[in-house]
Amino acid sequence: MAFLVLTLATGSSGGDAKPARHDPDAIVENFTVQRLDGSGKLRYTFSAPKMTHFSDDGSGEVLYPHLVQIAEDGGQFLRNGESRAPSVDRARRRSYTAMC
To answer: Which residue intervals of the chain are DSSP H helices?
Structure first.
């Protein structure tokens, strides 16, 4: 039974199976992303000094995110975030990342 669990968990039947490392595969610094509506009008701007992506689970971390959402009437909604230490609970981190 242990052999089956090891094979299913690691995708390998060898004794040299290593747990997946949570190393970044991409780092972007000082970036800005802008989203336009169908008519070409700016809807929001998302920026941060650093974003890191991890390929082992598809998660990402953003350092000090800054979001500006522009309403139909031209009003602005501003939101700033703080950096977070990586969480041991990757499922929770993926949920947090998806909300950002």
So the answer is: 2-10, 90-99
